[in-house]
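User: I want to check something. If I give you two sequences, will you return the structure for each one separately, not as a complex?

Assistant: Yes, each is folded on its own. Here is the first sequence with its structure:
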Amino acid sequence: MRIVFATGNKDKLREIREIMGGIGMEILSMKEAGVFEDIVEDGSSFAENAVIKASAIHRALTDAGDKDSIVLADDSGLEIDYLNKEPGIYSARYMGKDTPYPEKNARILERLEGVEDKDRTARFVCAVGAVLPDGKILTTVQTMEGIIGHEIAGANGFGYDPIFFLPEYKKTSAELSPEEKNAISHRGKALRAMLDILKQELGV
């Protein structure tokens, strides 16, 4: 039995392997598993999109004769309260799918120019969906709370990490070490919650 994760993002896959290594299974990207589906994420929530992705990969693997893989997918994004929780489920497609994140981050800082810290509250949200070999669906949703900083800072993270400021650490998410980030991040918490559920389901 192995885990196939519905991502082609190398940074994300590295995090996933670091966090879920304790399950004792091989963790592959969808491409490493030979799946090249172009999945339309048309759900209305992070959880719905995660399940849509996991279900699509599960169908593709099943059609190819693979009946033993556990398929996982995540959908995550940034919610900014002052911007009515934008970009939300459209985080990856904000300002266009191929717009570089430095441009996206700069635009968000422009939109929040002059806004006080108390009104810059935001959170990263991560939903993880799993489809077991028998088709059973599992989901977890977790968050990491913070504020939008006033400048881009840090080189350790990716995406919106350089503008997501954590007051208790006095750092952006991109200034945390990988170990610090995995311990508190939305994705880390959601993956660990899923890991616990999978261990119960599989009896490992």
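And separately, the second sequence with its own structure:
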Amino acid sequence: MHPRASALVRVASKVPEVTVFFWVIKVLATTVGETAADLLNFNLGLGLGGTTLAMFAVLAGALGLQYRAPYYIPWRYWLVVVLVSIAGTLITDNLTDSFGVPLEVTTAGFAVALAVVFVWWYRSERTLSIHSITTRRRETFYWAAILFTFALGTAAGDLLAERLGLGYLLSAALFATVIAFIGLFYGLRVFGGVFAFWAAYVLTRPLGASLGDWVAQPSDSGGLNLGTVGPSAVCLLAVVVLVAYLTLSRRDEILDDGFGA
């Protein structure tokens, strides 16, 4: 057998079709990631570093389930996304709070790391399309990109809202506006589908994070002071309901699992 054959074994598509449900769940998952990371950090009693290690252990288990899935299974996929969202938040919080790395540096660093993943992915596979996640190697590139989009989004959101003083609500409005323009330019065929998807994917992270902070943070910090428990529970319940609906309706399955872009 060719030494690279195991990486090239074709599998059924392991990711969902991009529908309105995809983006709604994505934003909800990012909001959960922001509020749940704070909730776990302050309630587990493990400290920021211990909480991060525990979360990565849980994430590794969820990724194992996802990799073993023979095809796209909604609850497995979205479980990984929610956990990656929490892990991405904790990575940025560790670098900023525990090691004193400036948000400008973490934002730039994660942007470079994400660019490296995309370049490596494209040079290896000649496509970055989510409709082509049909080999183990492409799935690995996909999840690496997802992790760095969440870490980058967290850093960028905190940079604008806190370091540059825009506030959580204004930051959320700014990110929502940019996403809307990306959608407009995609509709006008100025942007291709692959670029539009990944650009929107990166930006929905700080959008959801800014909304989560706006709801949870104290009023003197520009938030609604609702805490982390209630918002986390509400958003997580909404994710569960939507994922259950998609499991039954199968409205987000990719029917064509070929290798095209």
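Because they were folded independently, the notes below concern the second chain alone. Residues 1-8, 256-261 have pLDDT under 50 and may be disordered. The chain is about 70% helix and 0% strand.
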